[in-house]
Fold this sequence. Notes:
It holds the Pfam family RsbRD_N. This is Helix-turn-helix domain-containing protein. Residues 339-396 form the PucR C-terminal helix-turn-helix domain. Residues 35-171 form the RsbT co-antagonist protein RsbRD N-terminal domain. With 401 residues, this protein is of the alpha+beta class. The protein has 3 domains: 2-163, Orthogonal Bundle (Globin-like), CATH 1.10.490; 199-309, 2-Layer Sandwich (Alpha-Beta Plaits); 326-400, Arc Repressor Mutant, subunit A (Orthogonal Bundle). It has helices at residues 15-29, 33-47, 56-78, 89-101, 105-126, 135-180, 186-191, 213-231, 256-266, 281-297, 311-316, 322-327, 337-348, 353-360, 364-378, 385-400, and strands at residues 2-3, 12-13, 199-205, 236-240, 243-249, 270-277, 303-305. The strands form 2 sheets. A 5-stranded mixed sheet has the order 4-5-3-6-7. A two-stranded antiparallel sheet has the order 1-2. Helix 2 (33-47) crosses helix 3, helix 2 packs across helix 5 and helix 13 packs across helix 14. The protein starts with a strand and ends with a helix. The model has no long low-confidence stretch (mean pLDDT 84).
Amino acid sequence: xxxxxxxxxxxxxxxxxxxxxxxxxxxxxxxxxxxxxxxxxxxxxxxxxxxxxxxxxxxxxxxxxxxxxxxxxxxxxxxxxxxxxxxxxxxxxxxxxxxxxxxxxxxxxxxxxxxxxxxxxxxxxxxxxxxxxxxxxxxxxxxxxxxxxxxxxxxxxxxxxxxxxxxxxxxxxxxxxxxxxxxxxxxxxxxxxxxxxxxxxxxxxxxxxxxxxxxxxxxxxxxxxxxxxxxxxxxxxxxxxxxxxxxxxxxxxxxxxxxxxxxxxxxxxxxxxxxxxxxxxxxxxxxxxxxxxxxxxxxxxxxxxxxxxxxxxxxxxxxxxxxxxxxxxxxxxxxxxxxxxxxxxxxxxxxxxxxxxxxxxxxxxxxxxxxxxxxxxxxxxxxxxxxxxxxxxxxxxxxxx
Length: 401
């Protein structure tokens, strides 16, 4: 059935005739499905670099089979066959596989549009005189079919990605829990492909003053996002009653200033940090938590503090591991016996530089110069109240062995 409603009097076919021609075009393309599938694979590999890195069996078998299925499905739809949800099952399975293999979503969806272009070229090549008016119908069918497949594939891929991310977060959390508990974690990390360094920088961040489940989770997410660049990916984190624990590779300590800034932008808190080998993570975690508490209790501004930053307060808090660390604060003076002798004299003579100079038989300016050098070497000025306390305590601990 035709009508004459186009300029120039050329007949325009009705929808029934368009569908008949579309079915005929699809039938003429059917014998070419295998060739079209091979051409589709070639176009994919040429247009999408990621696909050249896929295993040969995936390229030559799995992707080719999916291409044949997709081409036949469209030709069947063009021939009038109704497509239902079951016909999408293979595409959904492939979407899940690509998500698990790490193929990007944009790369995956690009392949469907490349396929749509290929099928359109094949259909146009089969058009005979008088059949051109069926092309708009075929174009609508193809746009609708492609959009339907792409939407379903995107949903399946994103659902698979969400499941993968949930599983990985659970794995990272379990690995962190094992390390913080002093349990073996290497086998678990290997199972999930998580690289474990030999040593860690262990951070402890306090929970909000009035913690809620939502606030705690938001804190953990912000911290994870801020510190990804220091862990080469998602850092190992665990939230418990002592706060948020973060385990970073020890190399992150080489970027401590940068780490402080990143953490400050995400969550301006007063955090503690300690360095340890993997086997000593539990002790480092307790030390970081104590450092964080001390830094907050002594009114220090938000930031990341290590033992050296709160050494005297740490010792006064009764920490069992404080003695050796505090005594070691004067280790930089071991190669400068004149500085250590001057420091002892200065403290023994009640911070009187002239009396110390007389005891040492040197000029008072020499005492001043030596104390300035001592301050630079140990990071604490013995002429200040805190520096005096630290140096006096450290000297006592060294004398006691």
